[in-house]
Amino acid sequence: MSPRREHRLVFLLNVAQRRLQRWMAARTPHSGVTAAQSGLLFVLGQRDGVLMGEAGAALDLGPPGISGLVDRMTAANLIERRADPDDGRAWRLWLTPAGRAAMALSKARLADVNARLTQGFTEAEIDVVARWLVTMQSRFPKGEDE
Amino acid sequence: MSPRREHRLVFLLNVAQRRLQRWMAARTPHSGVTAAQSGLLFVLGQRDGVLMGEAGAALDLGPPGISGLVDRMTAANLIERRADPDDGRAWRLWLTPAGRAAMALSKARLADVNARLTQGFTEAEIDVVARWLVTMQSRFPKGEDE
DNA sequence: GGGATTTATTTCGCACGCGAACTATCTATG
DNA sequence: CATAGATAGTTCGCGTGCGAAATAAATCCC
Question: Domain HTH marR-type spans what residues (chains A, B) (predicted)?
Fold first, then answer.
């Protein structure tokens, strides 16, 4: 029984996430590229020149979140903001050479993280975990849907 | 077998955590008690008068984390800081009546969250998830152990 | 065409939690 | 006893991301 085990899921999720973030932050070989920042680097690695809103959607960030992330990464010279030629409101994001290099380094770190995230679990178990995490997205939606 | 699915675990964990936090924050019936704050309320509900460091350990927070949390909750009149009679450096934390009431309300919200966290998954699957989350704690330790 | 509405992004204030450095107290050791 | 070291908390600056409100450009509709 122990309702306590279930009670703990909220907490366990929180702790696991923070531990992972902290671990990644501490192991940033290249100058200060954080986990969130590598996320954006990967998005741009696949689709350079996306709109900020698209990048935000890909990372599940709202407007203020992506805006701040872009600010910091622009200041760090990892990406560039260039006006969209067709839409005066929009900005497109482009990797700088430094950003491209940082992305390559981030991939190595990600490989290490992946090993740690799956080690000791069967593929079926990892599938359960992934399915659970994905399900939580629809279970705790952004809007205030019931 | 898509290495991409594994790649996503970092991201999925991050998103699930943020979605849950956001959802809880939006559904705070009582004045502004956040998820982190309910965590401390529950700790005090079980052991009123703990040292700040003990509370931090229970919530996996470092000194600055628990210190700030206590600051905000003290300002909100949810808890009280009282000097430890035996140790001039230490402070013990106590629930205020308002804090005790907020804790009761938080429990209702937690029940709702728990339902959403487990609904649609078998007990065995939830066990896998819980085991995975716990394992991640040792996999991404606080110290810089390799 | 022009006013209302939608859309892209920014700004503000906030909560959270980290690492590093600091202060104050307690404890151990010579 | 004095002093060195350990321990409890605080403070600072930072990155992250949210909600709400503002700005500016695009679009829709009469």
Answer: 6-138
Q: Measured CA to C1', what is the nucleotide nearest B71?
A: D10
The whole-angstrom distance between A140's CA and the closest CA on chain B is 6
Task: Tell me if A145 is assigned to some domain.
Answer: no
Q: Is the CB of B63 under 7 A from strand C?
A: yes
pTM assigned to the model: 0.92
Can you tell me which residue has the tokens 């969209």? A84
As to burial, measured by CB atoms within 10 angstroms (0-12 exposed, 13-18 middle, 19+ buried), residue A82 is: exposed
Reading the block at residue A3, the tokens are 């309702």
CATH number assigned to the domain comprising residue B109:
1.10.10.10
pLDDT in tens, B89-101: 999 999 999 999 9
Q: Do the Cβ atoms of B20 and A140 come within 8 Å?
A: yes
Q: Count structural domains, chain A.
A: 1
Interface test with B, best of A11, A116, A140 (most B CBs within 10 A): A140
Mean pLDDT of B106-128: 94
Residue-wise pLDDT for A84-96, tens only, equals 999 999 999 999 9
Q: Do the chains contact at A9 and B128, CB–CB below 8 Å?
A: no
- Is residue A78 classed exposed, middle or buried when 0-12, 13-18 and 19+ CB atoms within 10 A define those classes? buried
Q: Is the pLDDT of residue B1 over 80?
A: no
